[in-house]
Structure prediction request, 719 residues.
Amino acid sequence: MAQPQPIKQQILAFFFSKPAQRLTPGEILKKLRLSREKLESIQVCLAELAREGKIVRLKKNHFALPDAAHCLTGKVQAHPDGFGFLIPDDAARDDIYLSRREMRRVMHGDRVMVRLDRKQRGQTEAHVVQILERGQQRLLGTYQEFQGEAYLIPMDPRVGPAIPLAPGDQKPDRGKVIAAEILRYGTGFSPPQGKLLQILGDPDDPEAQAQAIIFRYGLPSSFSPEARLEAKSCPTTADPEESASRVDLRPIRTFTIDGEKARDFDDAVSIEKLDGVYRLYVSIADVGCYVRPKTALDQEAYERGTSVYFPDRAIPMLPEELSNGICSLNPSEERLTKTALLEINGQGEILGSRFVNSIIRSHARMTYTEVRRILVDKDPESLERYRTFVDDFKTMEELALLLCEKRRQRGSLDFDLPEAEIVLDLQGMPENIVRAERNIAHRIIEEFMIAANEAVARHLREKEFPLLYRVHEGPERDAVEALASFLLSLGYRLPQKKEKVAPQELQRLLEACRGKPEERVINRVLLRTMKQAHYAPTNIGHFGLASSCYTHFTSPIRRYPDLTVHRMLDKVLQGKKLRPKERDELNTYLEEAGKHTSERERIAMDAERDMVDLKKAQFMMDKIGAEFPGFIVSLANFGFFVELENYFVEGLVKLSSLTDDSYHYYEKEYLIKGHRHGRKFRLGDPVRVKVTRINAFRSEIDFELVAQSTTDQPGIIHR
Prediction:
């Protein structure tokens, strides 16, 4: 006999069967033919469905489907002047204006549902009918007092002009940077209210500025006592009994290759070559041996999702006892690993692969710089110091170049954008910003890790085991069409087809502009058209790598998805089979884990970017009034951003500072143009600017245009 549906499902099913209905809880009770005592359950279910955005509450306690009520969902984007816009979840819909009255009970970043009412003269008015998710729970700003009342002046002016603070024990000095949480959100009749949590310091204090970023993104400051206790109980050396059960790779020459400042080493590589066939060993720290599911360590690692790396500090996913201790592949120390063994021919084709639980001993902790000195500089001192290993590195270089060429042929995108490296002094303040080096040693590790990740993904897919894939969708057609229009202005043609663009076409474009003046700006614009890669249990391939099957396996110390892949590989190595119920539970878990870890990755990336921007602003503090050459890298309706040639620092030239004309931004044409004289500013145009204002607290750098170079072809950099 079939079981009756839960009330929540019955309510939704009824509304979907009659989508135009607008009903009260009592009317729903009658329609579903439920007893009177179920009314409270119906009211609870309606409240849950409204919070989820699946139905909407209307006037006089009526409920309906969103579409039936002409509703849209999206995020609120506030303006400092008090009005705002709804950015619809449906990207095809235009932004919706929100009046100051509607903005009184919502805040910047809130996800809401609005009802669209068409008024006279064809105007549409939006009314907020449901707040689905709050975008602001914690606030940053400066402390002020007005008429004896305490206020937080938000760092982000879109949050509001001033937030009243509840009375408390702490009383900061005026102007100090403070952190607060929201106690009560605003309504149509009363403002929001906050509670002071922490006094961070003076706005000009570099450490207060850094702590503000850490607080803004809700990054953890310490591990829980339970997680610390578990970490301290972990062994400091590999267990002999466990080691004896593993494939012994200790005799094989094995190396870690990382940056000079790296402290944790979760991947090591070894290589052999026989009869033209390469045997590549990629050994990864077996973190799963020490971080068991459902332990305090595991729960905290899951919540963090990833390590966060700043120029002057790191917020690790795992405690130091693991990340720098037993899980770090330190030189001359025995470590438990999972190893991918790949056999590759002279054309870069994978002939076979297998995967084992192993034990290794790293023979040397190599840096990218040392390997470059050996392979590129032929430095006599380095060649002598590592003479036993030189042939290994030469063989690695051979194989890496083969794998790179193989990826290039299939269309893998290889962006060449210089990255900034912040050079800090002993006090942690930036003393220089230089171009980060990317040499053959980086290429070796990059190619070997990609090969291992693909091999593991293929193996688990062939075994029909669920896993978190690393997936990447291609760009939307609208974005490609806009890109094609911009490229045409530079003399490049991107084929337009009905189907989506292929990665090979974009790779050919990158190769065509390589080494030319416009290369940097084309790389930037093309990168902006790309969607962000994420984690999901459904394999849709990886567009950027032109890979049909890809995962993350190689960094379980700092990425939680890699740890989940290790656990799936463990099940396969043990010969386990999944029962249908177990498979369903695993798929449900991976769906949620994919969303959570993708979100944590985005938060980490945003925080890292903001911290780098802060360091850049701190670096420019003593350069106000100085002039620098640069080029335009981004356009907006309020101005254009200029990147300095020498320092990889960006600043804003506001249109309001251009007094010779009235300028307008033409988004589709990628240009800013003067109304009277027709003067144009395009992406890539070389300019000379003067530093006029720095607000390190907000990581803001303002430039003033000094001169614009004349070019024979608009938008192309001539240097």
Observations:
- Confidence is low (pLDDT under 50) at residues 711-719.
